[in-house]
Amino acid sequence: MPPTPAQSSPAPEPVPAPDRPSEDLRAQLDTLATEAFRGELAGIDRLSTREIADIMNREDAGVPAAVAAQLPRIAAAVDAIAARMARGGRLVYAGAGTAGRLGVLDASECPPTFNTPPGQVVGLIAGGPSAVVHSVEGAEDDGGQAAADLDALALVPEDTVVGVSASGRTPYAVGAVEHARSRGALTVGLSCNPGSALAAAAEHGIEVVTGPELLTGSTRLKAGTAQKLVLNMLSTITMIRLGKTYGNLMVDVRASNEKLRARSRRIVALATGAGEEEIEAALAATGGEVKNAVLVLLGGVDAPTAARLLDGADGRLRTALEAAAER
Fold this sequence. Notes:
By secondary structure, the chain is an alpha/beta fold. Helix content is 50%, strand content 8%. The protein has helices spanning 20-30, 49-61, 63-68, 71-86, 97-114, 143-152, 171-182, 197-201, 222-241, 258-272, 276-285, 290-299, 303-312, 317-325; strands spanning 91-95, 121-125, 160-164, 186-191, 204-207. The chain has a five-stranded parallel β-sheet with strand order 2-1-3-4-5, sandwiched between helices. It is globular, with a radius of gyration of 26 Å.
């Protein structure tokens, strides 16, 4: 006799279906050098503080060599960026997590260092500005949001978008590059794994292969250091190419505090060899503009003439000095 319902054995609980996206992502991560597990470091937590510091220092020492292997690609990207920016284009970084924060950091340092106007160098981070200080890690999976963030900037072909991602697969960074390229903007993909989707999506792919991290998958370490070094190069050399420096002097520095005002006077002194009184007079006449003050002193012109010469030279001090010598 079949059992009554009360006597029946309980039905087995349904087995959850495999989470295919998670499985696929795990499989992807297993192939990435930046995610590799290093068995030789499995006991690192049992070492002394000095021993751990020695290991980290040795790890970091290999990063510059990894960057050096990509110098031809970095230089090509800089030349392309500078050409676009000379025509009025912007430099836009797009990334998530550590990579996004590094882009925001580099962008935020351009105005005080090179006197770039607001919006000329922009850092976009998945999750918005609050993600700089509060982790919004899930935002990195939204490539569509990257397109929306770029559309909010009214992207034009003269602009450059640099996608930054240690793994080279982050949807936000890849989505930003793909969308920017569809709009005719110049694209650069900076990653720390070979054969990355990000580099493949960009016109200029830069893959700084730093290898497995000290802490498995913690790409704020070697990968983050490598990204910072490359971003330093992209922005700094671009600004040099645009005439934002005179030799290795920051003649476009914005003197917004006492330290920078003192630095401005020192830069004028180094550039001209002038005395303190002459420097103060030149800076006063030019409204504190270092580049103009240098031109006044070296070119033997007054402040209004210096301003006109620099305007005619697209802000390039060496060109303006040549024009002043021909007067």
